Amino acid sequence: MIKNQVFSEQRFNQKQFSGEEIHDCKFLRCCFDSIDLSETTFVNCIFYDDEMQKGCSFQNAQLKDASFKHCDLTMADFKNIQALGLEIRECKATGADFNGANFMNMITTRSWFCSAFMTKNNFSYANFSKVILEKCELWENRWTGANVRGTNFSGSDLSGGEFTEFDWNDVNITHCDLTNSDLGELNLRKVDLDGVKIDDWQQSHLLEKLGVIVIHSK
């Protein structure tokens, strides 16, 4: 186990942390690009230099079954990571960039499954553009202002989420669980809601936006 260390402007070796448990460490402007972090666990770690306003880079890293819990991943660069089974829980990931991240296990060219466990995080203004996250655990996240253009969340649990300043128009949420979520400006006329689960109070709110007055029977 690695604990209570500070790393500054370091570029790490291929398997330096692979499979390790890392607790209460600071990584300031560090580079994890292309290294193997499979099954590595980070707990209460900081990956953001608040003074320089710069995050760490994980571009092209192997993050299969890796875990981040209670970490500060603000502005982290996760572009093109291999992320099947990645766990991110109760983290601050404001402005993190997941463009090109791969959460899929390809079975054939036409069949695959995804695996990700990302819950109770702040993903405000993060970039998930064109990422495929089908049938994943994505509950109780804050998605304020996140870039989800072309993102596929089909079948995922998005319950308890906060979707203010969220563009619903070019994201696949079919068969998702949206119960107990703040749905922001979701427009029933423009979004495919096939198979989506919502609560009674959400239904009333969405219909009222269409001018329909919902009367609750006693």
From TrEMBL:
Sorted UniProt keywords: Repeat
InterPro entries: 5peptide_repeat
Provenance organism: Hafnia psychrotolerans
Protein's name in the database: Qnr family pentapeptide repeat protein
Keyword Repeat: yes
NCBIfam families linked: penta_rpt_Qnr
Keyword Membrane attributed: no
